[in-house]
Amino acid sequence: MAGQSLRRSAWVPLLLRLLLAGIAACEASPADDGAGPGGRGPRGRARGDAGADEAVPRHDSSYGTFAGEFYDLRYLSEEGYPFPTAPPVDPFAKIKVEDCGRTKGCFRYGKPGCNAETCDYFLSYRMIGADVEFELSADTDGWVAVGFSSDKKMGGDDVMACVHDDNGRVRIQHFYNVGQWAKEVQRNPARDEEGVFENNRVTCRFKRPVNVPRDETIVDLHLSWYYLFAWGPAIQGSITRHDIDSPPASERVVSIYKYEDIFMPSAAYQTFSSPFCLLLIVALTFYLLMGTP
After folding, report:
1. pTM for the predicted model, two decimal places
2. In Å, how far are 71, 93, 131 from 106, measured between CA atoms?
3. Distance separating alpha carbons of residues 106 and 259, to the nearest angstrom
4. Strands across the sheet with 131-138, in order?
5. Which segment of the chain is annotated as a signal peptide?
C-alpha cells in the first residue's frame, strides 16, 4: 500500500504541470489569432486598426461573386478547354434573283442580264403578311434608296435609304423629299433591318408595314406609286447628291401585289436601243453593202 501511495504522489506534479500548460496555451491563442481586442492578426496588423482592415482585400463568398469569378476565368480547367462562345451572327443572305417575277417583283438597272451583285442598281419587293420586304443593292460605297412618288419627279416623296457609315455599318433611314432636298424623318417605319457593305456595294434588306396611320411623310403601300431609284456617295454617314443627274424611275405605277421582273438598261447600253439609232445603223449597213451607184 505504501508503494502505491508513492507512485500516485509522483504522478500528481506531472498532471499539474500539463494542466497549467494547457491553460496557458488557451489564454495565448486569442492574441495569436488576432481574435481578442488589441490582438495581432496573422499578417502582423492590429485588429482594431480600421485602416489596416481596408488595406487587406476580403473575399466575398456570395453566389454572385462566385459566378462572376467563375465566368471571368479563361479556361474551364488546366487542360485548356475554352468556354463555349456565343454563336456568330448569321451572314447576310444573298438576294435570290431567280425568284424575280415569280415570288417577288424586281427592277434591274445596268448591263443586260445583270443580277443583284452586278447591276448598277437593283430592287426587289414582296409581300410577307402585313409587311412588304424590300431588298436594295447598288454599286456605291455610300447609299442606295427607293422613293415612292405620285409622279416621276423628285419632291414630296417618301424615301427609304440604306446608308453606309464610317464605322462600316449599313443603317436604314427614312427621308422625305422637300423639293430637291432629302430631309431625314425621325419616324422610321422600317423593321427587321439588315445590311452589308461588300465588294464596293451597299446591300440591305428591311420590312415596312403596308398600311400606316395617316402621315404625309409615309405613304400607304397598298396604293400604287411610281418608284424612284437613286444611289450616291455619303460623307460621315450623311447622304449627298446622287451619282447621276437623272436617276431612273419606273415607267408606270407599281403595285406590290403584282410581281414583275423589269430590266432598264443604263445610259451606257441605251445608245443602240434607240429606234432612231437602229434605223441609222440599218441605213449605213445597207449603204455599205450596196455600194455607191
Report:
1. 0.63
2. 49, 17, 17
3. 7
4. 191-198, 201-209, 131-138, 121-128, 105-110, 261-265
5. 1-28
Edge-first strand order for the sheet with 181-184 is 181-184, 170-178, 158-164, 143-149, 226-232
Report how far residue 233's alpha carbon sits from residue 240's, in angstroms, rounded to the nearest whole number: 6
Domain boundaries, the chain: 97-266
CA-based nearest residue to 155, from 147, 167, 165: 147
291 Cβ partners below 8 Å, 6+ apart?
Answer: none
Residue written as grid cell 424623318 = 185
CATH number of the structural domain 97-266? 2.60.40
Higher pLDDT, 212 or 228: 228
DSSP 46: B
**What's the confidence (pLDDT) of residue 198?**
93
Lowest mean pLDDT segment, chosen from 20-24, 50-54, 143-147: 50-54
